[in-house]
Amino acid sequence: MNYQDILGSCSETTVGQLVSRCPQTLDVFRKYVPEIEAHRQTTVDIVASLADVEPKRLCQELFDTVMEQTPIEELDTDVLLELISRGYDARHIEKLPEIHRLARKIEAVHRANPDVPKGITLAVKKLEHTLTDHIERENAYVLTRMEHDQPPRPDTPIAQMNEEHSLIKRQLNKLRQMTRNYRAPDSACRSWQRFYRELKALDFRLSEQIYLEKEVLFPRFQF
């Protein structure tokens, strides 16, 4: 998860907006700018400039404070939807083609190496197809219907989305088995090592997102 998913853009979010959401962030601001009350309309990145501190460092501290006070399970629905859209879905769409290319390269270049998982390119391609299709349908028929905590519609296919989550989890489990839990052999080249790192990161993000949707978001719309 990236801090922008919770704080918003630090070039747009003001001190007052953030403090109104999480009063404890005021202590973070005061640590860097003691007279911060006079800058409530100032954006976070400008505060960082006033304090001569890296904006990323300040934003990370603010993010940690917000998350300590507001567990992800208690975030507002619209914040969760934005997190899913920008923090997860957009990242998946960006990374999947790159992972697919790496799989194809590794299986082609090292096809004589017995440590190369046979069929890994096809397995990645199937996951890419499943996930891309899932994201499209989920956004069109489920997530947009949840904006602003709208009352649930009987035809919202939440059960179907959870079935697709189970399919995605099975595909991830297959990738873990094929790659020995993403452990590259000692002889692996840098591209091979990178391929496994990217797969492992995708697995982590997807597992986190499925939990977020299935256990936190969807129950809010099931009665």
Task: Report the portion of residues in β strands.
Answer: under 5%
The largest sheet is: none
Number of strands: 0
Mean pLDDT: 91
Number of discrete helical segments? 9
CA gyration radius, whole angstroms: 21 Å
Low-pLDDT segments:
none
What is the helical fraction, as a range of percent? 55-70%
Which structural class fits the helix and strand makeup? mainly alpha
Report how far the terminal alpha carbons are from each other: 29 Å
**Shape from CA axes?**
flat
List the helices and strands in order: HHHHHHHHH
State the main characteristics:
single chain; 65% helix; 223 residues; flat; mainly alpha
Could you walk me through the main structural features you see in this protein, from its secondary elements to its overall organization?
This protein is mostly helical and 223 residues long. The chain is 65% helix and 0% strand. The protein has nine helices and no strands. It has helices at residues 4-7, 15-21, 25-32, 44-51, 55-69, 77-109, 120-141, 158-178, 190-217. Helix 6 runs antiparallel to helix 9 (190-217), helix 7 (120-141) packs antiparallel against helix 8 (158-178) and helix 8 (158-178) packs antiparallel against helix 9 (190-217). The longest helix is centred in the middle third of the chain and has 33 residues, at 77-109. The chain is flat, with a radius of gyration of 21 Å. The model has no long low-confidence stretch (mean pLDDT 91).
